[in-house]
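Record pair follows.
FIRST:
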Amino acid sequence: MVRYRDGSVLAQLGNPDMRTPIAYCLGLPERISSGVAPLDFETLSALTFRRPDLHRFPCLRLAYEAMNAGGMAPCVLNAANETAVEAAKKIKTDYKDQAELQDSTNLIFKMESADQKQKTMQKLIKEYDTIL
C-alpha cells in the first residue's frame, strides 16, 4: 500500500502467488499474464490489519531501520541477508540467527564517522568470509 500526502491510500491486491511479481518484472514496462487466478472480491471475507510484531519478526525491524537510515543502508541490508542465508545453509542456523547477523550491518549506519563505518564494514566482510 502507498499512502500519499493528501491522505489517500492505493493498494494493489491479488492472490498470494510469486508468479505475479515475477510476471511484473519480466513484462516491464507492459503487464503480462502471470497465470494466477484473479482475486474474487465476492469470496474475499475481510481484510484485517495489525501492527507487525517486530520482536517476532526481527528482519522486518531491520528493514524499517534500513529504510529510515536511507542511502545505501537498504542495499547493505540486502547483501547481509544474502550472506546470512548462505551462512545459515552451511552452518544450520535458524532465521533468528540470520537476523542477528544482519543486525550487525545496521550498526554501521548508526556510527558517526565514515572512517569508523569503513573499518567496521571491512571487519564484517572478513567475518562473513570466515563463515562462508
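SECOND:
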Amino acid sequence: MGTCASRSHRHPGKRGWRAMRRGVFQPNKTRDITGLRFNNLTAVRFDHRDERVKGGQHYWLFRCDCGNEVVLRKNSVTSNNTTCCADCSRKRKALVNTKHGGIGTRLYKEWAGIIQRCTNPNDTSWERYGAKGIAVCEDWKHFESFKEWALSHGYADDLTIDRIDVSKGYSPDNCRWVSVREQANNKKGTLWIEYGGERMQLSYWADRLGLPYHTLYDRLRRYGWSVERAFTEPVRRVL
C-alpha cells in the first residue's frame, strides 16, 4: 500500500505560494513590457513592487534615450505622464522657456488658459467655451504667434483678452486687450442703452449720471420706466 506523503512535502497551498512568490515579477499578474519603448524611455527589466500601496505598484528600470537608467513607476510611464528621465525633463523645460520667453509670465498663463478651456473637456470652463464651439485659431495654438500678436496690440499685465463677438472664437480679428470691467460689459446679457444720441452700456450711463447701477436697472427692467424717466428722475433719499 502507498503511504501518505509526509507533512514536509505536502502542497504549500495559496498562502504558501504567495509567500514564495513575494517580491518576484509575475508575468501572469501584470503585462511584461521588457524591451517596449514609451516616448523616450525603453523598459529594461522589472525592479520591484511597492507593497505599501494598496494593490501594489510595479516599478521598472527604464533606459532614457540620453543613456540614463532610472527606476520609475510603470503606470506613470505607460500612461505618458513620464516621458523621459529627470535630466532630460529639466533640459526640455529650459529649452521651451528660452524659446517662448514666457513660461511663468502672466501672458503665457493667459494663453494656456485659452487653450485649456477651448480644447480640454476636463477644464472647469469647458462647458462655456469648447463645448459651445468656441475655438482657437491655428496660429494661436503656438505661443510664439500669440505672443507676437499680443505685444503688438497693446498687451499689458493689467489687461485681459476679450472676444469682440462673444459667439466667435479666439483669433486676431476677434480679440482685443481690455480691462476686466470692459470685458464684463461685453458678456452676453449686457444692457445697452441709447440716450441723447449716444449708445453705451448701462454701467457707463450710471457713472456718467452719478446714479446707482442697480437703481437704473430696476427702473428699466423691473418697473418698465422709459429711458428718459429712468435717467432724469432723482433718487429718493431715505432719512
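COMMENT: Residues 1-12, 15-25 have pLDDT under 50 and may be disordered.
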